[in-house]
């Protein structure tokens, strides 16, 4: 028996006016998901506990079968593991986004234009971070380069850093009410803005009409986590496939194989085919029992308010990821179970995460059920609610 989780980040949504009052899941042509739905079971899963924010960190830990009350210390430490930064007990890590800000004057007079600096490339971002590492000198702080706009700040013996706001929660809003109250962090953000203003990378992007990386934005704080190995908890040898440092970091900390796939971006232009090929290879040739295939594209489209692209991303996941994996396993005569779900909704209307329970499709090739003709938010509403959500993994693996 092989076990596959297809995690379509942020896929669930609310009805969208531009889509005729339907959700992207309802509009998307996804014949393979719907075919599995006809012989599968749908659930609702509460992936975010009431006392935590609906972040991808919390939600993916839950889907992967971990009780966040026992293991969660913050988002950034998970990402630190992905880029090989080993935190000491005295260090606190933070996510450092490269963001685009609009307006002039003081920092508090600016507006959050783009939490990703126009999906800046990893190469361009690396040059910017290298300059900041050289010129942004604050005792006790270290800056590390990640992927695209996602980077890491580490503070040794951190003092009280107050409330820090994710930049994707304040798209198109003035930053005045969301600035850090911590003087050190605010000083780093302000100084990064000064250093980056006339950087050659930004000059070149400006000339091309692209959004510039105007500042670091600091958030997602946390201490070194302790995560039990997935194999020790569930007895399955597993692998993780993702373009996102957060998910890769969870995989590393859980003792799973983290598979590298070329040309993955975490957006709609990612290498979907490569992810499917890697999943098939790790299950049928490399001896893994379990694979967690994470796609960020629906979430990014939700944050940007791109309804048509969100529909397209779901269709691409169906045709380029789910279908090839199902076909390969069935051609080999391999029994399998598949879970398909988002970690949380990222509704187009609010451009950020929501904490609603998410729709989940569970298919078992050896125990076909009498399911529903489609897989959508609405079709899952009368399914059993799994709360707390981390119990889903044991149900999936032991059903």
Question: Summed up, what is this model?
Answer:
This protein is α/β, with parallel strands linked by helices and 399 residues long. The protein is 34% helix and 20% strand. The termini are close together.
Please characterize this protein's 3D structure.
The chain is of the alpha/beta class. It folds into two domains: 2-72 and 226-398, Alkaline Phosphatase, subunit A; 91-222, no CATH class. It is 34% helix and 20% strand. The protein has 14 helices and 13 strands. It has helices at 24-27, 31-38, 56-63, 68-71, 76-82, 122-135, 183-196, 200-207, 230-234, 245-253, 272-284, 297-304, 307-331, 391-398; strands at 2-8, 41-45, 91-102, 111-114, 141-147, 150-156, 215-222, 238-241, 257-259, 290-295, 336-341, 358-364, 384-386. The strands form two sheets. Strands 9-8-10-1-11-12-2-13 form an eight-stranded mixed sheet, sandwiched between helices. Strands 3, 4, 5, 6 and 7 form a five-stranded antiparallel sheet that branches. β3 (91-102) and β4 (111-114) form a beta hairpin.
Tell me the strand percentage band: 15-25%
Q: What's the CATH architecture name of the largest domain? A: 3-Layer(aba) Sandwich
**Uncertain spans:** none
* Distance separating the two termini: 12 Å
Main sheet strand line-up: 9-8-10-1-11-12-2-13
Q: Provide the helix percentage.
A: 25-40%
Query: Count of helices?
Result: 14
Oligomerization: single chain
